[in-house]
Amino acid sequence: MRDSFFGLNIAVRGLYTAQRNLDVVNHNLNNVNTPGYSRQQAIQVASQPIALYDGTGMVGTGSDVIGVSRVRDEYLDFKYWSENISSGEWDTKSSQLSEMEATFNEPSDSGFSTITNEFYSSLQELAKDPSSMATRSLVKQDGVTLAKYFNSVAAHFEKMQTDINYSIDTKVNEVNSYADQIQQLNRQIYTSELDGNTANDLRDQRTVLIDKMSKVVNIEANEVVAGKLPNGKDDKHMVITISGKAIVDHFNVSKIAVKQRNTKLNDEDVSNLYDVSWADGNKLDIKGGELKGYLDIRDGNDGAAVSASYTGAQTTSPLYKGIPFYMRKMNEFVRTFAKSFNEGLIDTNGDGTVEDIAGHADGYKLNSSTGDQPSGIRFFTMMDGQGNNMGSTAFLAQNGATISDKYDNITAKNFAVSEDIIDDLNNISTSGQAGQQGNIDNLNSLLAMRHNPYMFSEGAPEDYMKSLIATLGIDSQQAVRISGNQDNIVKQIDNRRTSDSGVSIDEEMANLVKYQQAYSAAAKMINTMDQVYDTLVNKVGVGG
Amino acid sequence: MRITNNMLINNMINQVGTNMTRMDKYQNQLATGKKISVPSDDPVVAARALKLRTDVAEVDQYGKNVKDAQSWLDMTDSTLNSMGDLISRAKELAVQGANGTNTVSDTQKIGDEVTQLRNQLVHLGNTTYAGKYLFSGYSTDKELLVSDESSPNFGQFAIPVSNGEQIKFEVGIGDDININVPGSDIFNNGAAVATPPQVSPIIQHFNDFITALNSGDSSKISSMITTFEGDSDNLLRVRADVGARSNRLDLTSNRLDSDNTNFTKLMSDNEDVDMAETIMNLQNEQNVYRASLAGGAKVIQPTLVDFLR
C-alpha cells in the first residue's frame, strides 16, 4: 500500500524541478555578456525510489535537482594563461618600439639623413666661397640643427624611460591588487564549498582575475591538493606563483614591490629608476608579461656589462635592444664624429689604429695672418650643466687624461656646436695655411671624412646611423609580427573556451521551451491528481 | 565545435577589424605615395631609401659645384684671352717700333700706348670674380700685383704666390678639379714661386720695352719681339690647360646629369608605390570589407527569440 497523496508529491517535485531548471536558464540568459561567465547546468536526477517490499517493484518518486554545475574546461584556462603572458610582453614591446621609431623620424624630410645632407651641402658651398659670411652662417646653422636633432632624440628617450618607469609602478600595483582580490575570492570559494557544492560564479570571477593577471606578469596558477578535509574530500588550495615563489597561496598574499635604485644600471639611464622585487626583499625574476616588456625596453642594453658604479645584484643588462642600447649607440656616434671632425683622429686606412690627420682644430681662421698658430677651435663641443654651449677652452678643461678621453664627456643629449663658432663665424677654420683666405685644404680634409668607411666599424658616419635605424626597424617589425601571432593564438584559445562554456541564446531559448513544457505538464498532473482526490474524497464510498 | 551567438559576433568583429587594418594600410600608401611610413614596415626598403636619398643629394651638390667651377674657369679663360690680345698688340708695336725709319718722338708715342697696355695688364692680373682675386692663389682677398700706378712698386708681386696654391672643387666622390690659375704660373714665366718685392717678368719686359722706346734703342726694340713671343707662348700654355679642364667639366656635368636621373629613378622605384596598383588594392580591400560587413550583419542578428511566438 502506498501513501494516498503520493501522486501529488511526485507532481509537486516535478514543479520544483522545472522551476529550478527555469531559474538556471534565466541565470544563463542574464549573464550572456558577462565576461568570463561559464554556462551553468542543473544536475537533475531521478529521486530515490521507494521499495514496497510486496513484489510489485520499486516506485519512482519523481526528479530532484541535486546541484548546479559549471561547464568549464580547466585545461583551456591553463593554455590561455600561458599564451597570454607572451602576448602581453610582445604587445608592450611593439607599441614602445613604434614610439621609438617615430622619435627617429626616418625616412622623412626632417630626419637624420636630410639634416646631414644639408650640413655637408653647406660645407661644400663653403668650400667654393670660404670668405662668404652668409655661407659661414649657413654652416653654423646646419651644424646647430644637427646637434639639436640628437639633443631632441635623446631627451625624448629619457622621457620615455621615465614614463615607462611610472608604468612599471602602475603595473606592480595592478598585480598586487589582483592578488588581493583573488585572495578574498579564495576565502569565499573555500568557505562556500565546504559543504560539497561548487561556487560557480565566484570561480568564474577568479578565473577572470587570473586572466588579467597573466597578461601583466608570468604567473602559474594551480589548484593544489593540500591534504584531506574531514568529510574525506581533497582539500584544494589555489596557488599562484611567479617564477617559483607564490604570490597568492590560499589565504596568504606575498606582494611584489618597487624600490628605487640609487645607482644607475646603465650609464645612459636616467636616475632613480625602479627595481621590481618581492616586498619581503627576495629577488624577483620576471620572465614574461607586460612587466617584462617594459623592463626590457627600459633597461635593455643588448647584454652589455652594467655601469661601473652599479651596486645591485645584476651583472649584465637585459639581452634586448632597449632604450639604453640606442642611447649608447647615439652617444658613441656623436663622440666619435666630434672627435674625428674636431681633432682629425680617424682611422684612414682600415688598419685598426687611429691616425691623426687634419681636423677642424688644426685649421686656420678666416682672419688669420701669416705666422699665426692653428686655431685650436673645436667645432662640436657640448652644453654645460646650465645648458650653455661650451667653447673650446672650456671643453678641453674637462675630465679626461688625453684629448681623446675628453670626448667621453659628450653625450647625445648635450652635443652642441661650440660657443666659439656661434659667437664668431671667422672661427670656422677652413684654411690649411695661416693668412690664406682661399685655402680650403683643411675643409677638404673635413669633407673627405664623410666617405671614410673606417670611421666606425659599421662604416662611414651616415652608414652608422642607417644601420642603427635599420636595427630598430627590424626589431620593431619582429615585435609587431610576434605580437600579431600571439594575439591570434590567444583569440583562438579564447574562442575554444567560449565554444565550450559560452552561453548560446538559441540553446537557452530551446531549453526554456523544454522546461516550460515540463512545468506545464507537472501543473496539469497536479490538476489531474486534484480531480482524482476529489473523486476519491467526495465520490468514493458516499452512499448512493 | 559548438558555436554560440557571442562567438559569431566576436569572430565577426575580429575579421572586420582585420579587413579595416588592411584597408588602412593601402589608404596610407595611397595618401602618402610611399610604401613605408616607419622603418618597421619594411626595414630593407627603409635602409635603401636612406642611402639613395643621400646619393641623390650628393649628386645635386656636385652638379652645383660643377656649375660654379665652370663659371670660374670661363672667367679665367676670358681674362687670359684679353691678356693674350694685349701681348699680341705689344708685339705688333714692337714690329712697328723696330722699323729703323722711326724717330725718337715716333717711338716715344708708341711708348705711351705701351705704357697703357702695361697698366691694363697689371689690372687684368688683379681681376676679381665674386669678390675674389682670380690669380692670387689661396690669398683670394689680396691683389696679386701692386696696382697703384703712382707707386714705384707698380707691377711687383704684392703677395707671395706659388704654383702649389690650387683651389679644388669636389665634383664627385674622391674626384676634385683645380679651378684656378695661380699668378705665379702666368706672371712668373712658369717659375714655381713668386715672392715680393719681385717684379713680374712680363711687366719687366714691358718696362724694358718702354725704356727702349723712349730712348729709341731699335736693336733692343726688335729683340722685344722674340721676348713677347715667349710671353705669348707661356700664356697659351696656361690657356690650353684651362681649356682642357673646362672640357673635363663638361664631361663631368653630363655624367652627373645622367647620375641624377638614375639615382632619382632608383630612389623612386624603391620607396614610391605604383598608384594604379595601390588604387586597385584599395578597391579590392574595400569590396572585401563591405562584403564582410554585409554578411556579418545578416548572420548575427536573428536568434531563436525572434521566432518563438
Q: What would a concise description of this structure say?
A:
The complex is a heterodimer of chains A (544) and B (309). Chain A has helices at residues 6-30, 74-104, 112-128, 133-193, 200-216, 289-299, 323-343, 392-396, 403-406, 419-423, 441-448, 461-501, 505-539, and strands at 40-46, 50-51, 58-59, 63-70, 219-228, 234-242, 245-249, 252-253, 256-260, 274-278, 345-346, 355-356, 380-382, 415-417.
Give a verbal description of the structure.
The complex is a heterodimer of chains A (544) and B (309). With 544 residues, chain A is an alpha+beta fold. Chain A has helices at residues 6-30, 74-104, 112-128, 133-193, 200-216, 289-299, 323-343, 392-396, 403-406, 419-423, 441-448, 461-501, 505-539; strands at residues 40-46, 50-51, 58-59, 63-70, 219-228, 234-242, 245-249, 252-253, 256-260, 274-278, 345-346, 355-356, 380-382, 415-417. Among the domains of chain A are: 6-71 and 509-539, no CATH class; 77-105 and 157-323, no CATH class. Helix content of chain A is 52%, strand content 12%. In chain A, strands 5-6-7-8 form a 4-stranded antiparallel sheet. In chain A, strands 1-4 form a two-stranded antiparallel ribbon. In chain A, strand 11 and strand 12 form a beta hairpin. The longest helix of chain A has 61 residues, at 133-193. Chain A starts with 5 loop residues before the first helix and ends in a 5-residue tail after the last helix. Chain B has a domain at 52-266: Up-down Bundle (f41 fragment of flagellin, N-terminal domain). Chain B has helices at 5-32, 43-98, 104-125, 183-187, 201-215, 218-271, 275-300; strands at 128-129, 132-133, 161-162, 168-172, 175-178, 193-194. In chain B, strands 1-2 form a two-stranded antiparallel ribbon. In chain B, strands 3-6 form a two-stranded antiparallel sheet. In chain B, strand 4 (168-172) and strand 5 form a beta hairpin. Chain B is rod-shaped and about 140 Å long. At the A-B interface, helix 2, helix 3, helix 11, helix 12 and helix 13 of A face helix 1, helix 2 and strand 4 of B.
